[in-house]
Design goal:
Layout: E1 2-6, H1 18-32, E2 36-42, H2 49-52, E3 56-65, E4 68-79, E5 82-88, H3 90-93, H4 104-117, E6 128-132, H5 138-147, E7 157-162, E8 170-172, H6 174-178, H7 187-190, E9 191-192, E10 195-197, H8 198-205, E11 208-211, H9 214-219, H10 223-226, H11 230-233, E12 240-242, H12 270-282, E13 292-297, H13 306-316, E14 321-326, H14 331-343, E15 348-351, H15 356-365, E16 368-371, H16 381-387, E17 391-395, H17 398-403, E18 415-417, H18 422-437, H19 439-450, H20 456-470
Helix pairs in contact: 1-20, 4-5, 5-8, 12-15, 13-18
Length: 471
């Protein structure tokens, strides 16, 4: 079985969010399970020279983009035993940032078409093309519209993964012909609410559709979570599957992590106290091992629950806690929490940037990790927190519901709440801080959290079952 995994970003080459972590880890996990898997992604300007030196130029072809014919160079790189094909076109990809350009529709129309056009030129005929998010959603549509008569493509199946249904690839219908070059026969597939909707096209064209957690696959069948696409998903629910993401245990491993001050394990957690002390010193927090550090590593936006945190913040600070926030986002939240850091010196630290190394130190040095999301397709931060013995507080939605269970029954790995309001959030924080004060019980909870299996091994097995079912 051969999989061609297509993503607009993948670690360690280019990353803007969780998609890159998945695209970097799942193919490696599939390879370990003896499933052939190669990755295709754009060759962005941001990919550094140190990585480019290890790439090999393979060939170049011309790719049709509606009425245009565009240069496409193909480079090959190997990472963790996985072969990556990087699609080169400097007009489209030699830019600052991965997304947010005026012609993103054309850029990813080119990329999607290029993925199919390179197949006759590489020594790899996939059984399944696995597409991710709207940037690659055109591939199942193109495959059915233009390539099925060619014997090379005739039996190729497609899987489409929705990482966040809010981002659907919606454009004016004039884009359908002039930029994407879809034939008239495909318009009934890609049109929705008088717009071109690429996610809708992929849902209807792919052989299977997945989301990144079982709960999220059910949530998006309802109007509240679907951003309008429940009307499309419900008739296709027989091919909709939810498979929870994992994390790369080679990268997130407290026993070997070179980015943290001291290593530790579920059998010997003593190093975590050293990580906590170092974090307090680094962020100018009061040095006190008996104070519970509550952390958030996140975009500071409303759907991540920051409106709840804002509403509850002063009450939370009435407990014996310190708060650490790392990330960037909406100005109103950045400004509010920066002011709170001034109001509570030595107790609140706010770092408004993305810093991967600092994130590792926060995961390792905190006691509690807060994720009160309004919606969360899967979430990776709670999985990382568990790995480092940092107990998550989460709202029961999406992947948070699938990966964190309440410890109130003495068997769970975190603290959960259901309704989206500040009072429920505060009650969950109270329970967590009371649990933290019971040192013996907290040690047991940390050990249980660290033994939770959120590796890609389990999730890769679920993908393999799905691939086999559609072949």
């Amino acid at each position: 079985m051969k999989i061609l995994y297509v993503s607009s970003e993948a670690c360690p080459f280019a990353k803007s969010g969780g998609l890159a972590d998945v695209a970097g880890a799942l193919p490696k996990a599939l390879r370990k399970r003896m499933v052939g898997c190669r990755v295709v992604m754009p060759l962005y300007k941001s990919i550094g020279e140190d990585m480019r030196r290890n790439m090999q130029y393979l060939f170049n072809i011309t790719v049709p983009v509606s009425w245009r014919n565009q240069y496409c160079g193909v480079f090959e790189a190997k990472q963790d035993g996985v072969i990556y094909y990087l699609i080169d076109n400097e007009y489209y990809f030699k830019r600052d940032g991965l997304y947010g350009h005026y012609d993103d529709a054309e850029r990813f129309a080119f990329f999607s078409r290029a993925v199919l056009e390179i197949l006759p030129h590489i020594d790899y005929k996939p059984d399944i093309i696995h597409c991710n998010d709207w940037q690659t959603a055109a591939i199942p549509v193109y495959l059915n519209a233009y390539y099925r008569e060619n014997p090379l493509y005739r039996n190729i199946k497609t899987v489409y993964t929705i990482h966040n249904i809010q981002y659907q690839g919606k454009f004016g219908m004039e884009i359908a012909g002039d930029v994407y070059g879809f034939p008239e026969s495909a318009h009934s597939v890609i049109e929705f609410d008088d717009c071109l909707n690429l996610t809708k096209g992929a849902i209807q064209s792919a052989d299977a559709v997945t989301t990144v957690s079982p709960t999220y696959s059910l949530e998006i069948l309802t109007p509240y979570y679907s951003y309008g696409l429940d009307k499309i998903l419900n008739p296709c629910r027989n091919k909709l599957f939810g498979i929870v993401n994992g994390i790369d245990y080679d990268i997130y491993n407290p026993e070997t992590d070179s980015l943290i001050p001291a290593v530790f394990s579920s059998e010997d957690i003593s190093g975590k106290a050293k990580c906590k002390a170092a974090l307090q010193q680094e962020l100018s927090l009061n040095s006190d091992e008996n104070t519970c550090i509550i952390s958030m590593v996140s975009r500071l936006v409303e759907h991540k629950g920051f409106d709840l945190v804002k509403a509850a913040f002063d009450d939370i600070m009435g407990r014996n806690v310190q708060v650490v926030i790392l990330g960037t986002g909406e100005y109103a939240f950045e400004n509010y929490f920066t002011e709170k850091a001034k109001q509570y010196p030595g107790r609140v630290a706010v770092v408004l940037k993305f810093d991967e190394a600092l994130a590792h130190r926060i995961y390792a040095g905190s006691d509690v990790f807060l994720m009160p999301s309004r919606s969360e397709p899967c979430g990776l931060s709670q999985l990382i927190a568990l790995r480092y013995g940092t107990i998550p507080i989460v709202r029961k939605t999406g992947g948070l519901n699938d990966t964190v269970t309440d410890s109130g029954d003495n068997s769970g790995n975190g603290f959960t709440f259901g309704d989206y309001n500040a009072e429920e959030l505060k009650r969950a924080v109270w329970r967590a801080t009371e649990g933290f004060a019971d040192n013996k019980g907290w040690q047991v909870l940390m050990s249980r959290a660290m033994k939770t299996d959120n590796s890609w091994k389990k999730s890769a097995g679920e993908y393999i079952k799905l691939y086999k079912s559609i072949l």
